[in-house]
Specification:
single chain, Protein-Tyrosine Phosphatase, Chain A, alpha/beta, two-stranded antiparallel ribbon
Length: about 260
C-alpha cells in the first residue's frame, strides 16, 4: 500500500488513511498526515505540499530545533500549532552501541507520554476540531514523537495494535535518507548509535504494552493522564473515520522504493 508521498527533501511524509478503525469504519485518506520536519519545504516541494490542502500543522519539536532548522512556510489559511511534547532532550546519535534500540526508545516514549500531557491533549483537540481541515503533525525525523502521537490517535479511533505497529515501522523505508541528511550535517560521519533513524516494531510493541500495564489500555492512559473523554473520542472518530461501506479513493502517494 502506498502511504509515502514523494518529496525531494522530505523523506517520511505519509498518509495514515486506509486502516480499519472502530465498528468497521475506515480511516479517511487525505485527512491526517505524519511527516519529518516541514522546515525542509522549498520550491516544488512546497508547491506539492500546498496541493494537499493542509489546514493545520502540528509541530512537535523543541524551540531550539525550530530555530536551527526552520518551520513550515506560511501559506494562506494554514494554521500552525507549536506543541513540543518532549521535555527531556537527549542525543540519540551519541548513544553507545550497547544501548538496545527497542527498550531504550520505548522508555523514552513513556517519558514523553507522561511529561507532555498538556501538549498531547491539545494536539488531539486540534486533530478532532471540525475546522482544522486536513492535519499534518511532525517532529524532526517523523519517527519518535510523531510515532507516539500517531499511535495515540489511531488507537483512540479503534485501529488495531498490529496496524499501529506496522504504521510505525514504515519509517524504515525512510531510514537511509534520514541517515544521509544526518551525515550531511556532520561531516559525512556516521552516528555512533546503530539504532539512529531506525524503527523496529518492538519499540512500539513495548510502548503500547507499557501503557496498558500502567493504565489498562491506551484509552485508559488517555483518560487518566490527558483527560480524554467520550466526547473527544467521538470527535476524533467523526473527523477521521468514513462510514462503514463508504468507497475509498485510490491509494495516495508513491512508495519510497519506486522513487
Amino acid at each position: 500500500m502506498n502511504r509515502h508521498i514523494h518529496f525531494a527533501r522530505l523523506h517520511n511524509f505519509r498518509d495514515v488513511g486506509g486502516y480499519q478503525g472502530a465498528d468497521g469504519h475506515t480511516v479517511r485518506w487525505g485527512r491526517l498526515y505524519r511527516s519529518d520536519s516541514l522546515g525542509k519545504l522549498r520550491g516544488e516541494d512546497r508547491d506539492r505540499f500546498l496541493t494537499l490542502g493542509i489546514g493545520s500543522v502540528i509541530d512537535l519539536r523543541y524551540d531550539w530545533e525550530i530555530d536551527a532548522k526552520g518551520r513550515v512556510p506560511d501559506a494562506p489559511g494554514l494554521r500552525y500549532h507549536h506543541l513540543s511534547i518532549e521535555h527531556r532532550p537527549y542525543d540519540q546519535a551519541a548513544l553507545g552501541p550497547e544501548v538496545e534500540t527497542g527498550r531504550f526508545l520505548a522508555d523514552r516514549y513513556t517519558e514523553v507520554a507522561h511529561d507532555g500531557v498538556a501538549e498531547l491533549r491539545r494536539a488531539l483537540e486540534v486533530i478532532a476540531a471540525d475546522d482544522s481541515g486536513p492535519v499534518v503533525f511532525h517532529c524532526a525525523s517523523g519517527k519518535d514523537r510523531t510515532g507516539l502521537l500517531a499511535a495515540l490517535v489511531l488507537s483512540l479511533i479503534g485501529v488495531g495494535e498490529d496496524d499501529i505497529v506496522a504504521d510505525f515501522a514504515l519509517t524504515g523505508l525512510a531510514t537511509e535518507r534520514l541517515l544521509a541528511d544526518w551525515r550531511a550535517d556532520h561531516g559525512n560521519q556516521d552516528p555512533n548509535w546503530p539504532g539512529y533513524g531506525r524503527a523496529p516494531a518492538d519499540i512500539m510493541r513495548f510502548f503500547l504494552a507499557d501503557l496498558a500495564a500502567a493504565h489498562g489500555s491506551v484509552r485508559g492512559y488517555a483518560a487518566d493522564r490527558l483527560g480524554v473523554d467520550d466526547e473527544l473520542v467521538a470527535a476524533l472518530r467523526r473527523n477521521l473515520l468514513e462510514p462503514a461501506g463508504t468507497r475509498q479513493p485510490a491509494e495516495r502517494g508513491t512508495t519510497l522504493e519506486s522513487t
